[in-house]
Design brief:
mainly alpha
Length: 362
C-alpha cells in the first residue's frame, strides 16, 4: 500500500470514528434530555432509599415480610404527606379568597394594640402607631404600601406553589425509593460494580462511605429539621398563629442551613405575648423555646458513625441546591454536596498515603 492509499485509509478511518463519536454524543444528549425532568426526583428517591435501608431491615425482623414493610411504610408516609396538604391547601385557598373579597369590600377589622406594644424595644412606638391606625382604617393605612403588598402576595403564593410541588416530588420520590428498597440487593450490587469499574479496588470503600454520608446527613440534618419543624407546627396551630405553614417552612429551612430556629421563634413568642400573658402564652413560650433548642439534643443522637460534616458544607449545599432546583434542592443539595465533600476528602487522603509510600520506598 503506497503513501496515498495509507493517507486515504487514515482519512476514512478518522471520518468513521468522528461519525461514531457524533452519533454516540447525540444518543447521550437525547437520553439526558429525556431523563432530565426525572433526574432529581430519582436522585432523591435513591437518597431516601439509602437513608431508610437500616430502618427497613429492623422492621423486617419484627414483621417478617420485607416487601409488606416497605409498601406499608410508603403508604403511611404518602398519606401523612398528602392528607394534611390537601386539608391545608383547601383551607388556605378558601381563606385567601375570603380575605381578598373582604379586603376589597373594606370590611376587615383589626383589634387595637395593647399598651404593651409600646414597650417593645426600638420599634415599640412606631409599631403601636401603625397598628392603631390600621385598627381604625386598614385600607387607608396600607394604601402607601399597595405595590409592596402585591409583590409580597405574589412571592407568598409562589412559595406555597413551590411547597406544594416539593410535597408532590416527595411523594414520587418515596415511590421510587420503595422500588429501590424492594430490589435492594440488585441495586447495591450494581452500585458497587459501577464504582469498582470507575475507581478500581477502592470502589467498595467509596460505596460504603457514600452510604454512611447520605444516612448521616439525612438523619442528622434533614431528619432533625423535619422533626423540629413538625414540633413547631404543632405549637403554632395550638395557638392559632397566622401563616403557621409558612413559619414552619422557614424554621425547617433555618435548621437545615444550621441557623438557629429561635430567629423565627423569638418574634412569634413576642407576638403571642403582645396579645396576652396568661398561662397559655407562658406554656407556649416554654414549649417553643424547647423546640428551638431540640436540635442540639437530636443532632448528636442522629449523626451516626462519626461522619461529621462542617456547617459551611451543609449551608452551601442547601442554599445552592435550592437556587438550582427549588425547594426540593434544599434537601438534595445538602446531601449531594456533603457526599462530594467526604469523597473528595477520601481521595485526597489516598493520594497523600500513596505519595508517602513512594517517598519511603525511595
Amino acid at each position: 500500500m503506497n503513501e496515498i492509499e495509507q493517507r486515504d485509509a487514515t482519512v476514512r478511518l478518522a471520518i468513521e470514528i468522528a461519525i461514531r463519536i457524533a452519533l454516540l454524543a447525540l444518543v447521550i444528549y437525547l437520553t439526558y434530555m429525556i431523563a432530565k425532568p426525572f433526574i432529581w426526583i430519582v436522585v432523591w428517591g435513591i437518597i431516601i432509599a439509602v437513608a431508610l435501608a437500616p430502618l427497613v431491615s429492623i422492621l423486617e425482623k419484627y414483621f417478617g415480610s420485607r416487601k409488606k414493610v416497605i409498601i406499608g411504610f410508603t403508604v403511611t408516609v404518602i398519606a401523612a404527606l398528602l392528607i394534611p396538604t390537601y386539608m391545608l391547601s383547601g383551607s388556605m385557598i378558601e381563606a385567601s379568597t375570603s380575605f381578598a373579597h373582604t379586603f376589597k369590600e373594606g370590611n376587615i377589622t383589626i383589634p387595637p394594640p395593647t399598651q404593651k406594644v409600646k414597650e417593645w424595644p426600638v420599634i415599640g412606638e412606631q409599631a403601636y402607631t401603625f397598628w392603631d391606625n390600621a385598627s381604625h382604617n386598614l385600607k387607608t393605612t396600607l394604601e402607601p404600601f399597595k405595590d409592596e403588598i402585591k409583590k409580597m402576595a405574589g412571592k407568598f403564593f409562589s412559595l406555597l406553589g413551590s411547597g406544594l410541588s416539593t410535597i408532590l416530588m416527595f411523594v414520587g420520590s418515596f415511590v421510587i425509593a420503595a422500588i429501590f428498597l424492594i430490589k435492594s440487593e440488585g441495586a447495591v450490587t450494581f452500585y458497587h460494580t459501577l464504582l469498582r469499574r470507575i475507581i478500581g479496588d477502592k470502589g467498595d470503600e467509596w460505596a460504603e462511605l457514600s452510604a454512611l454520608t447520605v444516612r448521616s446527613v439525612v438523619t442528622g440534618v434533614i431528619g432533625v429539621a423535619v422533626i423540629q419543624a413538625l414540633l413547631a407546627f404543632i405549637g403554632l396551630i395550638a395557638m392559632d398563629i397566622p401563616f403557621a405553614v409558612v413559619w414552619t417552612l422557614i424554621i425547617m429551612f433555618l435548621t437545615i442551613i444550621q441557623m438557629p430556629a429561635l430567629l423565627v421563634i423569638g418574634p412569634i413568642i413576642a407576638y403571642v405575648f403582645a396579645h396576652g400573658s396568661g398561662t397559655a402564652e407562658i406554656v407556649f413560650a416554654i414549649y417553643m423555646l424547647i423546640v428551638g433548642a431540640v436540635d442540639g439534643v437530636l443532632k448528636p443522637l442522629l449523626m451516626g458513625r462519626g461522619v461529621d460534616i462542617p456547617m459551611l458544607i451543609i449551608l452551601i449545599g442547601a442554599i445552592g441546591g435550592m437556587i438550582l432546583m427549588g425547594m426540593i434542592g434544599l434537601f438534595i443539595g445538602a446531601v449531594i454536596f456533603a457526599l462530594a465533600y467526604k469523597l473528595f476528602g477520601l481521595w485526597i487522603a489516598q493520594t497523600h498515603i500513596h505519595n508517602t509510600k513512594n517517598t519511603l520506598n525511595h
